[in-house]
Amino acid sequence: MSIKLLVVDHHDSYTNNILKLLSGDVAAHIVNHDRLSSPRIIDSFDAVILSPGPGRSDNDNDFKLGAEIIKYTLSVHKPLLGICLGHQGIATTLSTQSQLLPVKSIRHGHRMRIKLADGRLFRGIPSDIHVVTYNSLTIADADNALAAASLSVTATEADDDTSVMALQHAHAPIYGLQFHPESVQSEYGAQIMSNFLEVCSEYKKDTLQIPRELIESSSIALQVEAPRIRRHAFTVTHRSVDLPVDTEHVFDRHVRGSGGLGSVWLDSARVIKGAENMSYLANPALAISYRLSDHSVTIQHGRTSKRVTIQLSFWDWFDRLQKVLESLTAHTRSDGFSVGWVTALGYELGKESLEGYSTCQTRLDHLRSSSAHNSVDALLLFCNKVLAFNHVDQVWVEHKLEPIESVDCDGLGVDEGMRYILEHLLESPSQSQSQSHPPLHPTTHTSSYRSAHTLQTYSRAIEEARHQIALGESYELCLTTRFTADAEGMDGDGYWEIYKRLRHSNPAPYAAFMDLPILDLAILSSSPERFMKMDDSGRIEMKPIKGTVERDGNDSEHDKQLAESLCSDEKEKAENLMIVDLIRSDLMAFCEPASVQVPHLMHIESFEKVHQLVSTIIGKRKAHVGVVDAIKRSFPPGSMTGSPKLRSVRILEVLEQSNRGFYSGCIGYIGVNGCADLSVVIRTIVYANGEMHIGAGGAITYPSVAHKEWEEVLTKARSVVGTQIET
Ligand SMILES: C=C(O[C@@H]1C=C(C(=O)O)C=C[C@H]1O)C(=O)O
Ligand SMILES: NC(=O)CC[C@H](N)C(=O)O
What is one process in the GO biological process aspect for this record (predicted)? Predict the structure, then answer.
């Protein structure tokens, strides 16, 4: 008989990885702690796992229901496993004398040796194993307080007998683990969990039906009905075209300056093994911009525009539109982009994608008074004709969306805005005047880039970040800042000159150029980081970067040593591991569990100015999860937030005091064929409102040293604009 397991998630970013450790006949439900109102929920389950998480187990805001569940589970004698925060909760709830104290050395994402005693969960496991820890706090066993509460210590750090790394109750099936068995670098995680499930089988009793509301609020994706399409309205044609292999020349001659809305180029400026190595060039037929501040979508097409307020969140609206488009289009199998959206999704869209997000009041006040209020948070550019260049085969193909019959919107479940979009997809807007006569001497002049911080002010932000980590609020925070230059009078030719320089000075595999005069917006990106690639069978690849070192020339002996030292640096490796575990958990929420794998853990990729530590995580999305939903569930990119995601995002809002905009979001394509490839927007210049902005930052962990982090920020910003930085 199947074991019904309740996993209570405290908004940690690792909880879904627990599912990866489960085998056999078990049905697990993951539910956020703040969605539950009573510990009696346990009556519907055979056992419970209390997840890790930010904050403290003796703080009601973080662990109120957790504590009630522990007491109730003890009274009904059902199995309970607490991990990290959950483990600390067992001690603070059952033993009022036990205290939470800071650990001696705070090192999140650290792999340590522990010594196991004779605990029920450790059967069949060697007594000396390596596990990963993510805690700032620990249980102090003063005056045998734990023993008085019938708790015994079943594991300690290998070289510290007084530390409490695991607990077990003497008379009830209650267990705690201070470490994270679900981390990709912990040993014997699956064996520990299998031992726990064995206990669950022994204690299995009759349980009640699981309440329907609970199943619906489970954080694992539920089936959303795809629109039923009777007939295809579009098809995609592909034809080879004879153009020079110089993509820059082709973009300049055939794309830039054409088209009324602007031009876009997803540019494989650096061809690397494992990247898609395709470039896509297009003049969008239709531009959609979304503003979070008033939930409005503006659809621009030629000189006409339509503005609608949407009732759904942006993500659900876009998901619907994409699903309708996918189902309206007849497909031949094709990997990569053919036609569809070129998109830029701003970091603040996380407010609509992060489960449990609600912003604090002070932050809202700040937003209301800032100019960011009017900024565009998402851009969807529909490209019905795309020029694609394969850098490996050196061939050009033109993809085009063609009509089969007119779109019948009735019964598709589309709103007024979507209806307007579907009706105008095939029309190319007329050419704009200003773009067709480029001036002979483009203005490329900007002032130098002023930094929003000095070493002193950034150091203060870093100290506050470290303080929050020490309190147990976060394990890692990706703190960022911004640099701004005046660019009054700059036009499309100006950005183009700057972009040409950038793609040569800092060539990147996920570079991009977007010039959108109708929105007075341009994006010049030299991103080295893949956020997410999806093929049309739903296979996903994510390649987060954590770990950066400035290069010393190219290929010198010292430069090689720098790369090697990055590979073996414990701090950088821990930063990377934390994001790998976070992304595994993101993917576990909507992928086939067995498909989530880490084929490459911490490899070096070298770019013009920096070496980076990169990992690869793969998965296959479940059949009912759409491409937009997959992006939403992983957004914002974990490498730009830190971990756990939700709490870290909130802390960063307070520390950074300004919107990140497109920086830290993602850029790329989402095709009507369901394929997507998106980069993380870093090493990127964004032009808006007469100013050029560059964001730069880095992961702060407890061992971070302020002046080194500041140097890293400057290195990253300089990789984009050289010496133009003013601090
Ligand atoms: C924050 C930035 O980069 C992020 C942080 C990195 C790091 O901490 O090593 C590396 C790549 C990005 O995920 C940036 O480039 O501005
Ligand atoms: N990973 C966790 O559950 C961390 C628990 C707690 N916030 C700590 O830092 O100790």
Answer: 4-aminobenzoate biosynthetic process
Tell whether the model's pLDDT for residue 224 goes beyond 70: no
pLDDT of residue 615 exceeding 50: yes
Q: Is 227 helix (H, G, I), strand (E, B) or coil?
A: coil
Measured in Å, residue 466 CA sits from the centre of ligand 2 at 14
**ipTM confidence:** 0.98
- Phi and psi (nearest 5°) for 501? -65, -45
pTM of this structure: 0.95
What pLDDT score does 210 carry?
80
Q: Is 71 a catalytic residue?
A: no
Answer whether 233's CB lies under 8 Å from 255's CB. no
Beta-carbon contacts of 138 under 8 Å, excluding residues fewer than 6 positions away, are 88, 100, 101, 102, 103, 163, 164, 178
Ligand in nearest proximity to the CA of 103 = 2
The model's pLDDT over 25-39, given as tens digits with 9 standing for 90+, comes to: 999 999 999 999 999
Interhelix angle 455-470/645-656, nearest 10 degrees: 150
Token code pair at residue 352: 């609509």
**Nearest protein CA to atom 10 of ligand 1, as residue:** 546
Dihedral, 301, 303, 304, 306 alpha carbons, nearest 10: 70
Domains of the chain: 3-217 (3.40.50.880), 234-726 (3.60.120.10)
Which among 78, 533, 543, 546 is annotated as catalytic?
546
Active site residue 529: yes
